[in-house]
């Protein structure tokens, strides 16, 4: 939220040609909100393009040199990108806001957020058993949710108290701490067959020609591409992928929640941001209590294996994903808004369950390539869909009323695709 408010304040000042801070309620006019959506959308598209170009190389680097190095590079890229955005906005009197579009180049160092997420998931798979895999995914999600529970509340209070820059600057020490933690992680890579490494021995000697180096580089890239595609040999894996990608796109619509609520219900961004804490609190209950209890009950009563439990949890979650966002888009008051958000939140375990189920369909040595390929496909889908979601949101802003929630109707449709896809899996 602080970054959204930062962009909004800069756009608002330029719109009113003011050198002083403009009251937030004056920034809710459609032209400002539409430019805000456009700015954030093109930032996301830029990040997706850059991440798509570097995902496979950094995924391959994680497999060859270790996960920690790539994760440290990734955090470094986040720090540089965030610092660039803060600097451009701070000097917005003399610098155009469009300079923030250079930040994706910095954020792509290490592969970007999606590649980092894929590497962390692969690292987790390396060290947990199949039985505990889904719960490990949920536990990792809970750690993220704790941050989502605390950070929005603290961020909103700091914005109301000290303005938008203090919460943004507070993030930098935490990112540096993450770099230290990643540096302490042990190497968890699964050893490959020594026969697959024969071509590595050839690189020890010197004196290779440029042509030979180019061929070796292309061969390495082609080998990396084939390794990433290796798991996609069955219909089931493709169904898992479609389900996973569609629900991750549906989850992305939550990024518009704060701006949507602020505009439709005339709340400040700081007030609307507390809904993120509500979502995080419900999600924690879902991951720590509801899903584990349901999983244990299915295992005990029906003797289901862990992959089948994951599949049934995904199927149940998808139903909430259809109903929740559609009600969210139709909500006409705070009570219905909160109830529909809770229902939507009940669906957010779907990607973790279906990803865990998909992992059971591939060989252990194919897990990291599978996750890297998922990251690439997710980035591609985000690249294609982000402008569509932005256009739907802007159309809703102009139309007003129930149509203002069009973007959440799209989220319900994406979850419907996942519901159908998961029902076809066996």
TrEMBL record:
The keyword Transmembrane helix applies. The lineage of its organism: Eukaryota, Fungi, Dikarya, Ascomycota, Pezizomycotina. The keyword Zinc does not apply. This is MFS transporter. Residues 193-213 are annotated as: Disordered. Pfam families: MFS_1 (PF07690). It comes from Talaromyces pinophilus. It is found in: Membrane. It is a multi-pass membrane protein. GO terms for molecular function: transmembrane transporter activity. One of its GO terms (cellular component) is membrane. Gene3D superfamilies: MFS general substrate transporter like domains. The chain crosses the membrane at residues 69-93, 105-125, 137-158, 164-185, 236-254, 274-298, 319-350, 370-393, 405-425.
């Amino acid at each position: 939220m602080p970054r959204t408010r930062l962009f909004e304040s800069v756009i608002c000042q330029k719109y009113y040609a003011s050198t002083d801070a403009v009251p937030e309620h004056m920034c809710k006019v459609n032209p400002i909100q539409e430019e805000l959506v456009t700015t954030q959308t093109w930032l996301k598209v830029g990040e997706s393009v850059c991440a798509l170009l570097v995902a496979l190389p950094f995924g391959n680097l994680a497999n060859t040199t270790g996960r920690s190095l790539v994760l440290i590079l990734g955090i470094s890229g986040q720090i540089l990108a965030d610092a660039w955005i803060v600097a451009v906005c701070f000097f917005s009197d003399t610098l155009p806001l469009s300079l923030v579009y250079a930040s994706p180049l910095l954020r792509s160092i290490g592969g970007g957020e999606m590649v980092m997420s894929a590497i962390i998931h692969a690292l987790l798979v390396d060290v947990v058993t199949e039985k505990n895999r889904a719960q490990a995914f949920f536990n990792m999600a809970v750690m993220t949710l704790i941050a989502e529970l605390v950070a929005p509340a603290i961020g909103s209070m700091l914005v109301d108290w000290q303005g938008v820059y203090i919460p943004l600057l507070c993030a930098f020490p935490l990112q540096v701490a993450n770099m230290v933690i990643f540096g302490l992680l042990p190497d968890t890579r699964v050893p490959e067959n020594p026969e697959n490494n024969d071509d590595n021995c050839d690189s020890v000697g010197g004196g290779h020609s440029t042509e030979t180096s180019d061929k070796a580089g292309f061969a390495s890239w082609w080998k990396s591409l084939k390794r990433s595609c290796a798991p996609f040999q069955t219909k089931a894996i493709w169904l898992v992928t479609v389900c996973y990608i569609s629900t991750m796109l549906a989850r992305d619509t939550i990024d518009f929640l704060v701006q949507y609520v602020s505009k439709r219900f005339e709340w400040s961004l700081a007030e609307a941001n507390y809904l993120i804490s509500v979502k995080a609190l419900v999600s924690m209950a879902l991951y720590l209590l509801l899903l584990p209890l349901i999983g244990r009950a299915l295992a005990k009563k029906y003797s289901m294996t862990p992959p089948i439990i994951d599949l049934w949890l995904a199927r149940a979650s998808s139903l909430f994903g259809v109903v929740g966002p559609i009600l969210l888009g139709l909500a006409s008051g705070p009570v219905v808004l909160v109830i529909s958000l809770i229902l939507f939140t009940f669906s957010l375990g779907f990607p973790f369950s279906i990803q865990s189920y998909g992992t059971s369909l591939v060989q252990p040595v194919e897990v990291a390539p599978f996750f890297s390929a998922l990251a690439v496909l997710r980035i591609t889908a985000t690249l294609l869909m982000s402008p569509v979601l932005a256009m739907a949101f802007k159309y809703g802003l102009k139309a007003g009323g129930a149509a203002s929630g069009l973007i959440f109707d799209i989220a319900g449709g994406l979850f419907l695709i996942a519901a159908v896809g998961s029902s076809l899996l066996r």
